[in-house]
TrEMBL record:
Catalyzes the reversible epimerization of D-ribulose 5-phosphate to D-xylulose 5-phosphate. GO terms for biological process: pentose catabolic process; pentose-phosphate shunt. The lineage of its organism: Bacteria, Bacillati, Bacillota, Bacilli, Lactobacillales. The gene is rpe. Substrate binds at residues 8, 66, 142-145, 176-178, 198-199. This is Ribulose-phosphate 3-epimerase. Its cofactor is Mn(2+); a divalent metal cation; Co(2+); Zn(2+). Binds 1 divalent metal cation per subunit. It comes from Companilactobacillus versmoldensis DSM 14857 = KCTC 3814.
Length: 223
């Protein structure tokens, strides 16, 4: 699998979102990670499908939409219609995750499952044949700028081992939370392919620093 850097727009300047998206494109972002939060599944609120549609108008990069919502099936069609390339659904958010994944794929988008730090891999192994991505949360979901949970490295490593020992090995492993120059190499060595970075990237002083940070993350992930 090819390593990919996915800036999280949760940490971007919402009043200058298009500017930040264009900056990230020039810096070499592979895709964008868009968090949709309803204030119920997690104690925070963020973007709606309209933001996905707005981003689709200003970038050709894939949009990786992470739905931290109750009743995810209610959001799937609006999000795909808005332009989501991949829809990521929390295993903990529905009793019918298999149905939700199938709905995403029936609408023509890629589908992924998200697991919180406390969710065992065994809960989602049966989804391997039908998913395109698994997102391992390396912080508790809901807020940017949190500290990486080191224990999640073993989960990523175990997931990669499972991927290598099954016929259903065509999904990518994504990590989200506390990704920076100290943690990305560890995640890559454990088997991750897609790295969501938010506060680390957007906390800088301008485009030059942003570009250096993306280049540094890529180098560390590939070494």
């Amino acid at each position: 699998m090819t390593n990919k850097i996915a800036p999280s727009i949760l940490s971007a300047d919402i009043m200058n979102l298009e500017k930040d998206v264009k900056m990230a494109e020039r810096a070499g972002a592979d895709l964008f990670h868009v968090d949709i939060m309803d204030g119920h599944f997690v104690p925070n609120m963020s973007f709606s499908p309209s933001v996905v549609a707005g981003m689709k108008r200003v970038t050709d990069k894939p949009l990786d939409v992470h739905m931290m919502v109750d009743n995810p099936d209610d959001f799937i069609k609006p999000v795909v219609d808005a332009g989501a390339d991949t829809v990521l659904i929390h295993a903990e958010s529905t009793n019918h995750i298999y149905r939700s994944i199938e709905l995403v794929k029936s609408l023509g988008a890629k589908a992924g499952v998200v697991i919180n730090p406390g969710t065992p891999l065994e809960n989602v192994k049966y989804l391997f044949p039908i998913i395109d991505q698994i997102l391992v949360m390396t912080v508790n979901p809901g807020f940017g700028g949190q500290k990486f949970i080191p224990g999640m490295l073993k989960k990523i490593q175990r997931l990669d081992q499972l991927r290598q020992t099954t016929d259903d090995d065509n999904f990518e492993i994504e990590v989200d939370g506390g990704v920076n120059e100290q943690t990305i190499k560890q995640c890559s060595e454990a088997g991750a392919d897609i790295f969501v970075a938010g506060s680390y990237l957007f906390a800088g002083e301008g485009e030059e620093e942003f570009s250096k940070k993306i280049a540094n993350l890529r180098k560390l992930a590939e070494d």
